[in-house]
Amino acid sequence: MPTKPTIARVWRGRTRRDLADAYQAYLQAEGIPPLRKTALGVQQLREDRDEETWFTTISYWADIAAMTAFTKGEPTKVHHLARDAEFLIELPERIEIHRILIDEQGLR
């Protein structure tokens, strides 16, 4: 039986609309692959607003220990990608860590 996640790690960042497509490609090439290899699952969300675009990355983990191993012992520290400062309006200062209370997937 597959392991079910108990922890969701949430990162949010925003960029100018004119940089959004380039940042999305960069984030998918550099930020998402390590999560795909290690996390139980990953989602990337995009919200286009008038002047800026928000990206949210959610990774799912079996437990705090698994997530802590991935983050090299610092689960709440933001690990910026090399070009984040070039793309992002401001560098995010925090990561959200949530316990998953209900996990129902699928559309009805």
Description of the molecule:
InterPro entries: Dimeric_a/b-barrel. This is Antibiotic biosynthesis monooxygenase. It comes from Bradyrhizobium yuanmingense. The chain has helices at residues 20-38, 64-70, 84-87, and strands at residues 7-16, 41-48, 52-61, 96-99. It has a single domain (7-99), classed as Alpha-Beta Plaits (2-Layer Sandwich), CATH 3.30.70. Helix content is 28%, strand content 30%. A 4-stranded antiparallel beta sheet has the order 2-3-1-4. It is globular. The mean pLDDT is 92. It contains 3 helices and 4 strands; from the N terminus they run E-H-E-E-H-H-E. The relative contact order is 0.28. The chain starts with 6 loop residues before the first strand and ends in a 9-residue tail after the last strand. It is α+β, with helices and mostly antiparallel strands and 108 residues long. The longest helix is centred in the N-terminal third of the chain and has 19 residues, at 20-38. A hairpin with a 3-residue loop joins strand 2 and strand 3.
In short:
This protein has 108 residues and is an alpha+beta fold. Helix content is 28%, strand content 30%.
Supply the key terms.
Alpha-Beta Plaits, Antibiotic biosynthesis monooxygenase, 3 helices, 28% helix, 108 residues, alpha+beta, Dimeric_a/b-barrel, 30% strand, four-stranded antiparallel β-sheet
